[in-house]
Amino acid sequence: MNQRIAPISHAAQESSTSVAQHPPGATVRLTAAQAVVRWLAAQRVACEDGSGRTEPLFGGVFAIFGHGNVAGLGEALYQYRHELPTLRAHNEQAMAHSAIAYAKAHFRRRMMAVTTSIGPGATNLVTAAALAHVNRLPLLLLPGDIFVSREPDPVLQQIEDQQDGGLSANDALKPVSRYFDRIVHPAQLLSALPRALRVLTDAAQCGPVTLALPQDVQATAWDYPASFFTPRLVNFHAPAPIASEIDAALAQLRRARQPLIVAGGGVLYARASEALRAFAAARGIPVAETQAGKGALAWDDPLNAGAIGVTGSPAANALARDADCILAVGTRLQDFTTGSNTLFAHASIVSINANGFDTLKLDAIAVQADAKLAIAALDAQLNAHLDGWRADAAWTAQATRLADAWRASVTALTHAQQEPDTLPYDADVIGAVQRSSPRSDTDDIVVCAAGTLPAELHKLWRAGRPGAYHVEYGYSCMGYEIAGGLGAKLARPEREVIVMVGDGSYLMMNSEIATSVMLGAKLIIVVLDNRGYGCINRLQQACGGAPFNNLFDDCAQGPLGAPQIDFAAHARALGAEAEHVANVAELDAAMQRARAATRTYLVCIDTDPARTTEEGGWWWEVAVPEVSPRAAVREARERYVQQTAERHAHASHASDDDAPTNEA
């Protein structure tokens, strides 16, 4: 029997009899699997529209069934399918990516669960769990596990460890989980599920949670307190700032004349965009955005200097180089943001982050707090005690000039005339995609991950509001793009979701095109075909290496040579509409057809694997071999040693002159 699945949206759903109230002391006999599903369905959140209504915290469960979960969890999910929709996918890693993207598109206020069988299905989750861990995004993993009884030992797909009889494939998920539990008795769910939920909804702890479910335990019944399944309104936890840390941050700001705000993903997850905009405007502080934070400030805000770091704009990086204080808000300060810890050499750093671990980087003055609460506290104290302190007027004026000039450059780069007989490059494609809609800066969601495209998008995509830019660059995971686009579309069905992906990532993971067609979750997929791994090919040569094993032309080949891949034909085979275009003018027309389509639509265009946007960028440390028979590598090593010494000496000198203090 076909099951019709309505789009997973913000619409409030009323509780059914399966999550009804029960008298005090009442119990209900359920299998462990039934208890998990029923409890998940009972968790609710306030609707985003401020109506006072509630909706499910969990938008659904992605499932690929096998012998380790089909009998237990599969039956439970069928029983409660109206309260907690089950969505079938085609690849376990991909469906976990979709679940992650769903949570990201909801700014961590709604999420999904994922269930697999015990063997390769479970280990396929490891990459996705690492991605969620790095990006601080909620993901509930419910892999099946081996028999607790060990009667059928070893069971099909079981990994046997000769030193640890209790180990299973799911133990591979421990290093990439923020919380891990193996449920060996149904009663353990009474503590395990609330603990899992706390991690998933706590800004300081947020990340993937794994509850390994042995298949015999899934099927075992127990008398649960009926009250355990009473619908609950979930509260999200984030630390409030403490006075002493705010005082230390204020002392540093008070001395600053040329401050710069670096906005990370924590601004979006704290829903602090408006607070950030007002604070920056009132204080005359320019703002630069990380990959995760892009969209925190509208692209045309006068104080938005654009992308920061290795993939940054010339405006933002020039300001970062000259700033005397960096106010890092909701960023984990990874090396692409900091230029391998060299970009902020002249500045003291104040780091605001809900996660205390992240506040300690770069010897920053730490403010462990929710971004919105911390900004409000700083603003109140500045108004009360520092007479409305502002950045130097000349600094603010310089920042707005640089930002204006960069916006003009973006327009020129994305609207350049394509020369005859030359292939377009990423900026040309980005321009065509954005101008296909008069309000793409606010209405569209662009999804991407890994390679050159995130660098180009970070610089050139015009994000008009939070959530318009959805790029996974914390783990830089090839294959996230299409699956992530599906998750974003399930979360925001009213928005056009445009997946921009290179041919390399497309070939790694594309099966969720079929899932998007099956669910009626239309995507626009733009494939930039540069016939290989163009990004890493350029890095290889920059490090002195010969072009090798990246572009098809430089790979080992059999007698038939490299494949001629028809991505449009492939997408059509998966149920999508698709076409290949020859140039940017044809892409402009194809984007209109894609927007008018009612199902997933793929457009492929050949692009230049060598060309990138020269403007902007910053040094990034990639170690070059110290010894090599190749002269090009030796020359690259000499450059690397010289650049490393210069950068570190510059940073050391700056820290001697501008060492931050914690005096109040």
TrEMBL record:
Gene3D superfamilies in the record: 3.40.50.970, TPP-binding domain (3.40.50.1220)
The Thiamine pyrophosphate enzyme TPP-binding domain, residue ranges: 450-603
Entry superkingdom: Bacteria
Hydrolase is among the record's keywords: yes
Region of interest (Disordered), ranges: 1-23, 638-664
Entry keyword set: Hydrolase, Thiamine pyrophosphate
Annotated ranges, domain Thiamine pyrophosphate enzyme N-terminal TPP-binding: 70-162
Molecular function as annotated in GO: hydrolase activity
InterPro entries noted in UniProt: DHS-like_NAD/FAD-binding_dom, Myo_inos_IolD, THDP-binding, Thiamin_PyroP_enz_cen_dom, Thiamin_PyroP_enz_TPP-bd_dom, TPP-bd_CS, TPP_enz, TPP_enzyme_TPP-bd
Domain Thiamine pyrophosphate enzyme central: 246-378
Claim: Hydrolase is one of the keywords in the record: yes
Biased composition (Basic and acidic residues): 638-656
Assigned protein family: Belongs to the TPP enzyme family.
Protein name: 3D-(3,5/4)-trihydroxycyclohexane-1,2-dione hydrolase
Organism the protein comes from: Paraburkholderia tropica
Lineage: Bacteria, Pseudomonadati, Pseudomonadota, Betaproteobacteria, Burkholderiales
